[in-house]
Amino acid sequence: MSDRSRTCDEGHAGNGENAVLPGSPGPPRCRIGNPSCCCVTEYRTWDDDCPLCQALREEHVQDEYTQILNSEMSVMIEAVYGLSSLVEQKLKEKQKTRQDIWKREGTFGIFVTKGEDGRRRIVVRDGWTSYHIDDAQSGGVLVRRVQPRVLTRSHTTTTGTPEAVEGPPTSTGVGGNASGAAGRVTAPPPVDTLEACERAARRLREVASHLQHGDVPLAVLQKTLTYAACVLETVCQEETRKLLDEDDELSEVRPDAVPTEVREWLESTFTRQSASLPKRRSEDKPRFRSVANAIRAGIMVDRLYRRVSPSAAVHLQVPPPILDLLKTTDEWCFNVFKLNELSTDQALRYLSFDLLNRYGLVHKFKMSSLFLENFLTQIEAGYKKYGNPYHNNMHAADVTQTVHFMLCRAGVANWLTDLEIFATLFAAIIHDYEHTGTTNNFHVMSRSETALIYNDRSVLENHHISSAFRVMQRDDCNVLANLSREEYREFRSLVIEMVLATDMTSHFQQVKTMKTALGHHDFSLDKPKSLCLILHACDISHPAKEWSLHTRWTGYLMEEFFKQGDKEKQLGLPYSPLCDRNTTMVAESQIGFIDFILSPTMDVCSELIMKIYQQVLHQQQQQRASSASTTGTPSEDSSRSSSVSSVGSQDVPKEPARPWMKYLEVNRLRWQERAAQDAEAKRLAEEQASVTNNGSAEEAAPASTE
Ligand code: CMP
Ligand code: MG
Ligand code: ZN
């Protein structure tokens, strides 16, 4: 065994730290004057004339520990692959231990060991703690937390893994400060980059080759291994995440849970699998970006409500009955049909004008009220262009009002900047602008002009955005005229992202990605992704509203689908799912929609809203604490009372409103009753038909024998 405390003849330590020759000028040198001797620089070169060099070299080459580490490198790589496939397998079985194993933060080592019982065991080192994972246990993975043991070189045994526990990798990374045999080192790239993989592989090879000559400092070796483990782990983690995302999106829908027709409809409408195309691999999933939690809690509170700028009020004269009805826009089951009646088919214009003023956005972004009115008039006209039963100005107003509910009653506005609130409401207002009353699939199959323009990708959504922005090309409709260049860019980018995400083919991916992210302990909220999900949820939310509203929407939607079916028949195209007016099972389709589309979406939405709420709350508490510590009184912002949201208004704030679940349940039951009635009616009709058939057959029979 080596002895790290040995010194050379001059009394210098072998680690190079104390190697300055007493009284000698210039750089440190060894006894024979070699500035790169081992006793000066730690194993950089071996000086054959230096007795300490020779002794150390001999020891080093034979050093058992070095050999173990050498072999551990290949074992480690194997372990990472092993662990990767293990995780893959376990993920498929939806093992809950996944997060323990893949706890990212502070995990910086993965090894395979052989236990005393001879079984292979994977060790994941998480900071100063190790987790021993034993996959041979029946019933799943067993994760044991092992207390840290700091061992030195002399404690190493021949049977174990490298037990020496190093501190977390420094920012300089592998061998950041080390010089010598392991090579000249610059700061390594971040572990989640392709460069890092290359760097880790190169470093491992270098270290392996140096180990053969026994000239790698322990610290360098450890850091290299640690870094490589980090890189490999990150790669595995990324793969694992992709695996999660790419799971068969409808795998959780049991084949017998819904009728085939409904299943086909779900598959062709809500996944990227087009009815007309073979299933393909989805593109790389977007990563969750870390968003700085720039929450300006409490600031929204005062300005949110009823802040009508005087200039705005001048233009749109709102009749009193409409004003009265607009007072109820904060309710989940706001009656948009009624608003449309009272406003002579101008629900979108009145509602949007009111909301944009209430949020103080007209004032904040210096919108001309006249331009806003012009813009909204144009947008409303675009919604009426094709006379659609469902995708018209009422649907746009409904989605905008539901988004407003999420902002104000579910507390999301407290988490957003003015520009983000503006973009979210704007996206809702325009999200189906100039909808043709036919689906994307119809555009693709009928080779429409719009499909040609947008290359069959999110055809309608692209059109909604593009044509709405085109409206603002007219000077007197340009409500964004006074946004700064940066504001405009951010606004436009948000609106584009949100409206594109209303394409139902991204539904499963969106919901699953958000669900996975919310399940991670180190999840940081991504604003654009969160807003996309919220708008998407509002867009499909009517089955979570009062039955009277929901059935009316369903009637309109089916009418629109059937009209498309009629067109398909005319064009000799196959019927799209739910578009054949003679065979579509409306009640069944709504049960399927509630069970497999809307309920999971609203579940994730609820979770997201709670997360946002907690984050806002936390932020406000911090603000209060810091304000109290500097001024001795709570901060003005955070102590304001809110009429919009309970967040931040009291010491123990109420939870954000989430009223949708009860409606979903009730509506589902009612559809079930309908489905049973429909089935009974069908059975009776079939019975009747067979009686009639038999009767006419009997009548026909004697005639034929005559
Ligand atoms: P759109 O509003 O453009 O985006 C969401 C789509 O979901 C909508 O068009 C309809 O095609 C579909 N959708 C919304 N609600 C239902 C529902 N209750 N049943 C079936 N499909 C629906
Ligand atoms: Mg749409
Ligand atoms: Zn819509």
Automatic annotation (TrEMBL):
CDD domains given in the database record = HDc
Q: Per the record, where are the segments of Basic and acidic residues compositional bias? A: 1-12, 675-686
* Note describing how the cofactor binds: Binds 2 divalent metal cations per subunit. Site 1 may preferentially bind zinc ions, while site 2 has a preference for magnesium and/or manganese ions.
**Which cofactors?**
a divalent metal cation
User: What SMART domains is this protein classified in?
Assistant: HDc (SM00471)
Instruction: Read off the InterPro entries from this record.
Output: HD/PDEase_dom, PDE1_N, PDEase, PDEase_catalytic_dom, PDEase_catalytic_dom_sf, PDEase_CS
Where are the compositionally biased (Low complexity) regions?
Answer: 640-649
E.C. number, please?
Answer: 3.1.4.-
Residue positions annotated to bind Zn(2+) 1 are H395, H431, D432, D539
- Compositionally biased region (Polar residues): 624-634
The chain positions of domain PDEase read 314-678
The record's keywords, sorted A to Z, are: cGMP, Hydrolase, Metal-binding
Which EC class is the enzyme in?
Answer: hydrolase
Q: Which GO terms describe its biological process?
A: signal transduction
Residues annotated as region Disordered?
1-26, 152-190, 623-659, 675-706
Q: Name one GO molecular function term.
A: 3',5'-cyclic-nucleotide phosphodiesterase activity
Give the source's domain of life in one word: Eukaryota
Family per similarity comment: Belongs to the cyclic nucleotide phosphodiesterase family.
Kindly give the PANTHER family that the UniProt entry links to this protein. CYCLIC NUCLEOTIDE PHOSPHODIESTERASE
Query: Mind telling me what this protein is named?
Result: Phosphodiesterase
Q: Which species?
A: Galendromus occidentalis (western predatory mite)
Lineage here is: Eukaryota, Metazoa, Ecdysozoa, Arthropoda, Chelicerata
